[in-house]
């Protein structure tokens, strides 16, 4: 999350705040000038000039049909450059493909950043009914399997820093919204070294995740298998999917120097 400071260049600060509007609105891809002006607290003329500048660089584009603005291909290319520099993604991809081949469900890889999960890659299964991709999005960690399995290895101080005094939004009837309840749950996740998301973020979507560890034994990412709940019974998650996930997560971790 962008946090301005006294040394910020104002025009750059406003551009980053504009990108934050797109990043934090999960269900909306386009915004009009008036809406952005109100959200950012800037005059419409300033917002228009900002959008025009970013559009000239390819980071913002205007939808001709709606005349609203959306992220441009420049942002995608920048994101891909960041992802490509994360070498473990290239390392992990073949193992994700093996998971999908053996299990027949989609596999994600994601990292934890400031209480959110950033989904970096996805290998999709060949099913007529599939879940909506989360790649490129960041969602709250406390209600996702990839997030919980990494939060579980955070210390008490870190959890308090992220969540103490914060509101844990309820996304479904299954979302954990109490910090004490979350801490209790994360202790179980830590002991088991896997986390299940049973419709906690999205209705009818179930996931199970295991950590990827570096040479110090610290989780640096996690992989999850996800699918519609009618295909992801608890027995299947634990008996069929989890052993395969753990096997390949261990292989990825070994290549990052983890020894166990």
Automatic annotation (TrEMBL):
Highest taxon in the source lineage: Bacteria
InterPro entries in alphabetical order: GAF-like_dom_sf, HTH_MetabolicPath_Reg, Tscrpt_reg_IclR_C, Tscrpt_reg_IclR_N, WH-like_DNA-bd_sf, WH_DNA-bd_sf
UniProt entry tagged with the keyword Lyase: no
Residues making up the signal peptide according to the UniProt record: none
Coiled coil ranges: none
Gene Ontology terms, MF aspect: DNA binding; DNA-binding transcription factor activity
GO biological process terms held by the UniProt record: negative regulation of DNA-templated transcription
Keyword 4Fe-4S assigned: no
Keywords: DNA-binding, Transcription, Transcription regulation
One Pfam family here: HTH_IclR
Protein name as catalogued: Transcriptional regulator KdgR
Protein's organism: Mucispirillum schaedleri ASF457
